[in-house]
Fold UDP-4-amino-4, 6-dideoxy-N-acetyl-beta-L-altrosamine transaminase.
Amino acid sequence: MAEFLPYGRQSIVDADVAAVAEVLRGDWLTTGPAVERFEADLAAVTGGTPAVAVTSGTAALHVAYAAAGVGPGDEVVCTPMTFVATAAAAALHGATVVFADVSPETGNVEVPAVRAAITPRTKVVAAVDFAGHPAALDELAQVAHDAGALLLEDAAHSVGGTWRGRPVGALADLTTFSFFPTKNLTTAEGGAVSCVDPELLARARGFRNHGLVRDRDLQRFPDEGGWHQEVHAFGLNYRLPDVLCALGSSQLSRLDSFVARRRALHARYDAGLSDVDGVATPVTLPGAQPAWHLYALRVRDGRRRALYEHLRERGIGVQVNYVPVYWHPVFADLGYRRGLCPGAETFYAQELSLPLWPDLRDTDVDRVIDEIRGFFA
């Protein structure tokens, strides 16, 4: 039987193993020099924007909303075409999530829909770079700022990409990353928050570490003793350990090659599928240089499920990304109803993620293409 092809997987080489082993042999396993190095390495690919490393992409979202001051009575305008965490992290802070519709071609939130969703209670606009294609970040930032809100870019799919010549991580007030194994680089589990504003950065760092204040100049009771630390605002333990940050820095050294290979594989799929009746290949808008986390094929005429099952039966681990967030029962129980965002529901009904990761071989892509062409023949 042919090798099973998952839709995504990590790429680990001897240098990654050596980087982790070096930390394991050292004095620091948790918060130490590898964390600062990884944060600096990440900033180097996000236009110099400082970063805070955290334990997951979900933690990054939770930290970012905390840094933005999101709480009860606030609204967060959010795309529904994302993993549930983008919206759930805001809801966990007590905010009301307002969903804005997406383009049925790219899966990215549309600027007019965001503009229509904003109210005086809007605190944050949360956009996702679906599949690695950056959202219209400059226009979304303008809409958010005109309303006195912040723009959060969920860049879980897009590290290494650019929008109109500027790197992902440099355009939004807050940018969150995920380093799960299927993403564009990995720390096993992990994430980060990039913040342009030093005040937002300080809040993010504080929330990551229980809100602890160790700087004597900032303490209310600085004469308590050298051991003294204070909590001025609640936080959580979202510290990413040195051992995982060492893996992240090693992976970042190969990010350019990862992105280049993903683009090459994406182009190979385009060339092999663009003339197939019944599917639509992904769209790249002018000004975008995507990092391509996913190859999001759109399957027309209600045949997505049949193609999904056909490929799965043949050892090709396609996936669907994602169920519209408000379809999840936890949001349905809050009163959200299907039909809220027609563009997102159309996109969901068609989307099928094909295998895509840097070590995928050209022959593997050709196998997937051949199976899809055979299905539609």
Summary: The radius of gyration is 21 Å. The longest strand covers residues 122-128. The first helix runs from residue 14 to 24. The mean pLDDT is 97.
